[in-house]
Specification:
The chain is an alpha/beta fold. The protein is built from eight helices and five strands; from the N terminus they run ααβαβαβαβαβαα. The protein is globular, with a radius of gyration of 18 Å. Pfam families: Spherulin4. Keywords: Signal. This is Spherulation-specific family 4.
């Protein structure tokens, strides 16, 4: 368990390092006139921001400060989903993001695991409803999606139920950059950060 926790924290730290690099690059672009440099660009950065918001998005040492300055889309995940009641820290986080005039975040998604189709439609819909009513998210990030074609109607129904906003579906069978990165892991990402910095 300790090894798993350490590995997870290492991955988080490295992902935040990359977000910091993006933040720095964007600040450089802003200073140079990003509106003209980035004209027509349609790529966005989405961050699996599964970090508890126990600090302000304006505090540099806070993980959410990095997300706020480096990501266009963020995914909130209060309790492996929305939980059963509103979490005031997440409510405040969403409010702070909405009120900020300096954040890059344009879209807030709520995390919902479909357990590869094993979670009932009613249960999934209850979670998306809670995200919609309590956190006012812009869309839903459906995780643990099944590749079973017989479940097409299941996914069609839960997507239809969440009518407002955007919907994203991912599948854990797809390559995870953390899992497929060459070893040693740390030096790989350090090289990626250096390449990103050099491109500026």
């Amino acid at each position: 368990m300790a090894t798993t926790t350490t590995t997870t924290l290492t991955k988080l730290a490295l992902s935040l390092t990359l977000v910091h690099a993006v933040c720095a690059s964007r600040q450089i672009l802003q200073a140079a006139g990003a509106s003209s440099i980035c004209a027509g660009v349609s790529q966005y950065i989405i961050a699996p921001s599964y970090v508890y918001p126990n600090c302000s998005i304006t505090t540099p040492s806070c993980a959410w400060y990095s997300f706020s300055n480096g990501a266009d889309y963020v995914i909130i995940n209060p309790n492996s989903g929305p939980g059963t009641t509103a979490n005031s820290d997440y409510v405040n986080l969403v409010s702070d993001i909405r009120a900020s005039t300096e954040t890059f975040i344009t879209t807030i998604l709520g995390y919902v695991a479909t357990t590869y189709g094993a979670k009932s439609e009613a249960a999934v819909n209850a979670e998306t409803d809670l995200y919609n009513s309590v956190y006012k998210v812009d869309g839903i990030f459906f995780d643990e999606a099944s590749t079973d074609c017989t479940l097409t109607s299941y996914y069609s129904n839960i997507v239809t139920h969440f009518r407002a906003g955007r919907v994203y579906v991912t599948n854990d069978d797809l390559p995870n950059p953390y899992d497929t990165a060459p070893t040693p892991f740390t030096s790989y990402w350090e090289a990626e950060v250096e390449k990103a910095a050099a491109s500026c």
